[in-house]
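hiii, so i know i said id send this last week but things got crazy w the move. better late than never?? heres the sequnce for the chain we talked about at the cafe, plus the structure i predicted for it. fair warning i was half asleep when i ran it
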Amino acid sequence: MTLPGPGSYRLLVHGKNRDDGDPVETYLLQLWPAPLAAPVTHRATSAYGATMRETAPAPTGQHPDWYDQKTSGYGPDHPAAQR
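okay and structure toks below
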């Protein structure tokens, strides 16, 4: 696909046959120049797509014993960086 030049674009993706069990899915991609805007979901009905849209549960479990020890540096969201 060749773009006409620099700038912002909108992309519409239409998928078909995603839940049929057949390994062949069909997609239509439409692209056009447009100003920046928030994403829009026009319709989302496939069962497979629903599994991809689910939010992942928060991680649970224990931290390793070295979790609070500084090794090379922390990101701003690491608990030890708040000290």
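btw Residues 47-53 form the longest helix (7 residues). thought thatd interest u
miss u guys!!
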